[in-house]
Amino acid sequence: MSESEKGTGPKLLSGGNPQIPKGMGREPVEAYIAAMPEWKHDIGRRLDELILEEVPDVHNAVKWNQPLYGTADDSWFLTFRCFTNYVQLSFFRGSSLDPVPEKGSKHPEVRYHDIRRLEDLDEEKFRNWVRQAAELPGEKM
């Protein structure tokens, strides 16, 4: 059970997305993942593990109530967040990935991938996306 489910952690926003204060480094990302509710917590934990395995020197932050992963403190390639029925991955240069994540955005380069159950996570495809995304120019935020 996550901290937010116990009533001791951060407030959950719409869709169960944890409200985490903005911050740089691993600590706020770990707080975000710890506060992800129910089955979403397992997905967040596994995504984070895979990202750290593929990009060991990854930079982290939490902004806009979502964890960010990048190659520098101001250059981000990936984030994820909770929605009611899924956890959504956002690749800032997703249109350059192969294969291209299936869900488009109003921003032409951003692509999304939704995960509804941990069992649905194609770890090899995700690892491949992470490796590719980390090599592309990041999004400045």
Automatic annotation (TrEMBL):
<protein>
    <recommendedName>
        <fullName>YdhG-like domain-containing protein</fullName>
    </recommendedName>
</protein>
<dbReference type="Pfam" id="PF08818">
    <property type="entry name" value="DUF1801"/>
</dbReference>
<dbReference type="InterPro" id="IPR014922">
    <property type="entry name" value="YdhG-like"/>
</dbReference>
<feature type="domain" description="YdhG-like">
    <location>
        <begin position="42"/>
        <end position="133"/>
    </location>
</feature>
<feature type="region of interest" description="Disordered">
    <location>
        <begin position="1"/>
        <end position="24"/>
    </location>
</feature>
